[in-house]
Every structure is written in C-alpha cells, then in structure tokens.
Amino acid sequence: MTPRGFRYLRRKAVNASLLTLSAASALFGIVFLVWILREVFLRGARALNWAFFTELPAPPGVAAGGMANAVVGTLLLTALAVALGVPTGILAGTYLAEYGRKNALARAVRFVSDVLASSPSIVVGVFVYALLVKPLGSFSGLSGSAALAILMIPVVTRTSEEMLRLVPDTLREAALALGAPQWKVIVAVCYRRVLGGLTTGVLLAVARVSGETAPLLFTALNNPYWNWNPLRPTGTLNVTLFNYAMSPYDDWRAKAWGAALLITLMVLVTTLLARLVVSRTEIGRS
Amino acid sequence: MEALFRNATRFFAGLVLLLLGAIVVTLFVDALPAFRAFGPSFLVSQEWDPVRNLYGALPAAYGTVVSSLIALLLAGPLGIGIAVFLSELAPPWLSRPVGVAVEMLAAVPSIIYGMWGLFVLAPVLHRSLYAFLEERLGFLPLFAGPSLGIGMLTGGIILAIMILPFVASVSRDVLRLVPPLLKESAYGLGATRWEVIAKVMVPYGRTGLVGALFMGLGRALGETMAATFVIGNSHTLSVSLLSPSNTIASTLANEFAEATSDLHLSSLIALAFLLFLITTAILSLAKVLLWRMERAVGGGSR
Fold first, then answer.
1. How far is the C-alpha of B87 from the C-alpha of A201, rounded, in Å?
2. What's this model's pTM, rounded to 2 decimal places?
3. How far is CA A130 from the centre of its chain?
4. Do A115 and B90 touch (CB under 8 A)?
5. Is residue A205 pLDDT above 70, yes or no?
6. Does residue B78 have a pLDDT over 90?
7. Do A156 and A89 meet the contact criterion of CB atoms below 8 Å apart?
8. What is the dihedral of CA B5, B11, B12, B17, to 10 degrees?
C-alpha cells in the first residue's frame, strides 16, 4: 500500500472511531435518564395509594399514613412563590426589553440575573434565614416561599425579556403613532402578543423550583401536621423526602420514593408544558 | 401613569442587582463572628467540632473542590461529545429527541439524583468499580479502602451526571455559532468530519467551550442535595477517593437547622459566604467567556 493510501485509511479510521465515541456519549446520557426515571417510576408507583394523599404522616416506624400535608404544603409554597416572584420578574424583564435595552443598568441586571440563575440554591436558603427567619423568630412557610421566589426571579426576568424582544418594533410604533402612551403599548400590545411566552417563563420558573429542597431545609423546615399559617413551619414533599430517605425505617424509605415520583412528575410535566406552550404560540412560529 | 410604570419596572430591575449585593452583605455580616473568632486559620483548619466549638473550613472546602473537579473531568469530555453529536452528527429526526432527553436530564431535580445515587447507583458502584479499584489499585492512597459505596468518588460521579446536560447544551449552542462557511470550506478541502470538528469548530469555539466547562464547574460546586445523599458526610479529611467526605453545601444541609451554638451557625454562614464568592466568581467568568464568544461571532459574520 502506498503511504498516501495508508494515511487516508488512518484518517478515516480516526474519524469513524471518534464519531462513534461522540454518539456513545449521547447514548450514555440517555441511559442515565432512562435508568433514573425507571427506578423512580417503579419504586414510586408502589408507594402511592389513596392514604398517601389523604392521611397525615404516621409516627416513626409505623407502616401507615401518608403525606397529605406535604402535598398541600408544596402546592401552597409554590403558589406563594409564584405570587412573589413572577410579577417582580416580569416587570424587571419589561425594563430590560422596553426601557433599558442597552443602557448600563440593563446590562448589569442581565449579567447578575444570569449569574444568580446558576448560583447555589442553598446559599439563597442561608440568605433568607438571615433575612426573614431570624428576625421573625420562627421557621415559616412564608420564608420558604421567599427563598423559592428569589430562585424564580432570574428565570422569569430573562424569559420575559427574550419574549418581549420578539415583538416587532413596527407593532410598537404603530400603537405609539395612534397616540398610546408607552406603558399602554407595553401592557395592551406587547404583553398580549407574548402572553404564551410569558406563561412559558412562569412554567419554567415553577419547574425550576418545584424540585428545590436545599433552600427549604432551614426556611420552611418541616411539619408533620396540617398547617395553614404562613408564619409557621410548613411540611413539603421535598423536605419530607429528604428526612424519610435518610431515616432507618423501610416504610419511610418506600414513601420517600412515592414523594420522589410526585416531584419528578411535577417537574417533567411543567417542563414539557412550557415547551408545548411556546411551540403553540406565535413565538414558536415566527 | 407612564412615569409610574416606567419607574416600577426600573425598580424591580434594580431589585435584581440589589439581591446580589444583599446576599453578599448579609452573609458577610452574619459570618463575621466566625471570622473574628478564628481569623485566617478558619480557611486552613481541619477541625470541625461542635462539641468543643471549634470550626475550620478545610475539609468541606477540599471536598467541594475535589468532588467538583471529578465531576468536571467526567462530564467535560462527555458533554462536549454529546454537543458534537447533537450539532454535527445526528440527523434532525434524531437530534431533536436526544436534545429533549438532555433537557429532561437537566430538569430532574437534585434530590432525585441524590436519592437514586444513594439507593441505586452506590450499591452498583460498590460491587463493581470500587471492588476492582480497591483490589487492584488499593495500594495507592487515592484508592485506599475500605469502600462503603458512598464517598468522594460517588459524589463526583453523581455531580458529573447532573452537570452533564448543562455542559452539553451550552457547548451545543457554542458549536452552532460556528459559521457554516468555515465548515464548508474545510469540507471542500477534503477534511473528514472529525477533522472539521477538531480542527475548525473546536478552535473557533474555544472561548465558548471553556465558558461551558466553567458553567458546569460553577453548578457542581454549589450542588447540594445530590452531594448530601452520597458524599458520606464526614468531616475527616482523607486522601482516598473511596472514603466518606463532605462538601460546603452538604455541611450546610446537614447542620444548619440544628446548629448548636451561635458560633456554629456563624461558621456555617461563613462557609456559605465562601461558597457564594467562589461560585459567583466562576459563573461570572463563564458568562464573560460566553459573551465574548457571541460577540466575536456577531462581529465576524457580518
């Protein structure tokens, strides 16, 4: 064989083997996803029953009871976090897309919110502990929601900004030419145009926080009973999962898998929903 | 009304900035008692003893850095491999579902990874990989037994699986920025697909790829629940990757709500302060690199 032919073969071999490795790494990632979901669904489905959703936790070691309070606690805390975090995020995003655009403040806000979006959530828990739990003198559902809201804000801010930027300037100019003040243009034209996009941002933010446990550990703490007072410790699925999984009782560990399944479903459904909303609206099409 | 609305949006935008400042200041103020009590030795002391009220950051800081580096070492090549697959290799009918799968892997919450790691992955690793390492390489201090299944290496592996989708999706976006003209010229010269990737796309996207890796590192450093489940939660410093260890985040998760004294609490907040400074620095660097990449492309292609 000529040296040139040999070289050609070698190049082809290197090409084929490294491209195979690249495809293998994609396969590798999918294997882990399937493996994790399989275990969570199989083990979780066994733990879920009527009592899981309707009864309070049983005393340690007693194989009975459920997590009704934690299911409700998670929903309440998330709803409160949405109420605190979403308006803040949308208005901040509005500033970035409509008023600030390229000024120094907007640039700084963009940078900081991108950094905050990946910041360790447990540090946010420590921050809220110092800010709310210590002054109020008690762990509370409210402080848990505040921590979740802080985690939501960067996500909502950046998605709202990106969505509003998709609104064509000609639309804004048309409304302005009709004599509408800018705030009215934003509220009545821009927001309406990207309603689907804003919803996506909210869904993504909910998905982002519904799996969060670390910031709740020392803000909302935990509570094995019903609690409707936002100033008292509140049980959540996530913290209950952590306590149960780390416990020595078989029944608690089994129930922890049930909680894991619920949390995973909540996160995956909101994530997929967010994708769906965005592809259904005009934004996906444009 | 116009002024009201405009100022409201500006106020909330400012709030985001304020948040960063408030976190730094609040943590620093509450960490002061610990910094005062131990001085600079807080950073290098191995002691973490709530009974004698002595606290040092070294074991947790060491565990944080080592487990994150293991994660980066594993997830870096794999993540870039996935990015190459998604952007260059896979036909559209394949790259879309794989992309969604990667996105779902990123959406799975930290605590689920932790639980799966503790109950499913750790026993498997204990029986296979760790038994092998202990038997064949146990003479090295790095792999000294006895392995328990949980420990530094398991922590690193779980963190690697967690940051893999982030590294992959950011690198994919970076590779997609490479101008088609550049790739086509290389193909036109007769380069193989791998040569185009390794000699044209990767050098072109170098800045962005490094940014993607830093992004993954920043995430790994602060990951809490996944590490807490599998790292072993021991304050003893050990060279062996098979022995239980600790990270800053897992120490906070385990001890914060039950801190025994004011100094204990303050020391924990000091750890949080350190963690926040380090991750913010690394994530900012990642962001700057990614921005520079985007700007270079924006300027170059027009």
1. 26
2. 0.91
3. 23
4. no
5. yes
6. yes
7. yes
8. 150
Write out pLDDT tens, residues A82-140.
999 999 999 999 999 988 888 889 999 999 998 898 889 999 999 999 998 888 888 88
Structure confidence at residue A286 (pLDDT): 43
H helix intervals, B231-261: 248-255
CB contact under 8 A, B115 and A245: yes
Model confidence at A279: pLDDT above 80: no
For residue A283, pLDDT over 80 is answered with no
Q: Which of B1, B27, B112 sits opposite A181 (nearest CB)?
A: B1
| Radius of gyration for the alpha carbons in chain B, expressed in angstroms and rounded | 22
Residue B59's contacts (CB-CB under 8 Å, 6 or more residues apart) are B46, B48, B235, B236, B237, B245, B246
Residue type, B261: S
- Which of B:91-110 have CB within 8 Å of A? 98, 100-105, 107-110
What is the token pair recorded at A131?
A: 């800010």
Neighbours of B289 (CB within 10 A): 21
- Measured between CB atoms, does B77 come within 8 Å of chain A? yes
Please name the residue of chain B whose CA is at the shortest distance from the CA of residue A237: B111
DSSP string, B31-95: HHHHHHHHTTHHHH---EETTTTEE-SHHHHHHHHHHHHHHHHHHHHHHHHHHHIIIIIS-HHHH
